[in-house]
Specification:
Layout (H helix, E strand, L loop, with lengths): L2 H27 L7 H18 L6 H25 L15 H10 L21
């Protein structure tokens, strides 16, 4: 195996490894609203156009990398349409995503409640938290 093909294979693996955590998080949380729809759309269009070039190359790392990028950007487009545009289920079972910290704090502040306090876990009867 020559050095350029080896370098292409290693680079393909690095690019794939850099993308997998983002995909795993998007799949796990179903929260893709922060992703740019323009970036997702342009990446998919670019992949389709680039395909015209890549299919004429010999089999190798470039084709593998292009197929990986095509699949990941198509998956992100699918998730974006499903969870943001169409408003599909955000989390398993509940039908909606858990509230963000900023939403919780905004609701808390507008309720007029006092300062937050930590209540320790205690199973001893003498342990009490003053009201």
């Amino acid at each position: 195996m020559d050095i350029p093909v080896l370098a292409g294979g290693v680079a393909t693996a690095v690019f794939a490894c850099s993308t997998l955590p983002m995909l795993a998080k998007a799949w796990r949380t179903k929260d893709v609203a922060s992703y740019s729809p323009g970036n997702i759309a342009l990446a998919n269009i670019g992949n389709l156009i680039y395909l015209l070039y890549v299919v004429h190359l010999p089999l190798g790392p470039v084709l593998v990398l292009h197929l990986f990028h095509t699949m990941t950007t198509a998956l992100m487009l699918f998730w974006y349409v499903r969870y943001v545009v169409l408003g599909g289920d955000k989390s398993a079972g509940s039908g909606q995503a858990p509230p963000r910290r900023s939403e919780v704090m905004s609701t808390y502040r507008s309720s007029g409640a006092g300062p937050l306090r930590s209540v320790p876990e205690c199973s001893v009867p003498e342990c009490s938290v003053p009201e």
